[in-house]
Amino acid sequence: MRRPINEAIVSDTPATVVARTKNSDGIWRVVAIILILSGLAFLINYGAGALAAITADSAVKGKEYQALFLTNGQVYFGKLSHTDSSYVKLTNIYYLQVQQSVQPSSSASSSAANQQVSLAKLGGELHGPEDAMYVSRAQVLFWENLKTDGKVTQAINNYQSSNK
To answer: What predicted TM-score, i.e. pTM, was given to this entire model?
Structure first.
């Protein structure tokens, strides 16, 4: 028995459409899962560093001074602020300067006694830097909030009051 042509087309079409829809739904699900997993991997990788930076930045006491210790042994004092995930900003900068006496010393112990450590304000150097420094977070070993009654903070306050 022969079926009419129209009946064959109508009866075959829904099965074909359903089969194609099931295949395309599966492909879109795989694409969606891959995108979600990629997004999660990015957030975990980037978010951990950003979260650590945000947490550390929230511990900075904005009205107080901080000591910034770098991996090369240098220490700077100033107001620390967050710039981005790669850099921190230090303003109102001071650093320790060791001054040695020009008199020759006879022993190692007396040479230590001839050294004087003073606090110097950044900006008076030969190259004339501005009073802002951007430091790579990779170069920061650690930082500390300074107490208002500490020797460094007192020296900074004395410098500022005498140089107004």
So the answer is: 0.57
